[in-house]
Amino acid sequence: MHVEFIPLGEYSLLFEKTKQHAEMLGKTDFEDFLDDIDFASLALKLGTPIWSNDKVFKKVKVLNALTTSEMIKMLKSAG
To answer: Strand (E) positions, the chain?
Structure first.
C-alpha cells in the first residue's frame, strides 16, 4: 500500500472555494463540514472521492462521497 502525504500549501488555497460549495447547508451541517474542509478541499483538488460515513459530504453536490457500504459494494464488484 502506498500513502502519499500532500503538503497543506498545495490545497489550502481551495478552502474558500470549497466553503462556497457548502454554503447551501444549514448552520449545523456547515459547521460540521468546516471541521473537515481540508479533506473536502484535497478531494476536489485531486478529483477523487471521499470515503466517509459523514452525511454532510453527500449534501455537497460537487463532492463524490462514498460510504463504507458503497465502498464494499464497489470492491466486491471489482472482483
So the answer is: 50-51, 65-66
pTM of the model: 0.82
pLDDT in tens, 6-56: 998 988 889 999 999 999 999 999 999 999 999 999 999 999 999 999 999
Cell (9 digits) for 69: 457500504
What spatial distance separates the first Cα and last Cα of the chain, rounded to whole Å?
18
Per the listing, cell 472555494 goes with 17
Q: Is residue 64 a contact partner of residue 43, using CB atoms and an 8 Å limit?
A: yes
Do residues 50 and 57 make contact, with C-beta atoms less than 8 angstroms apart? yes
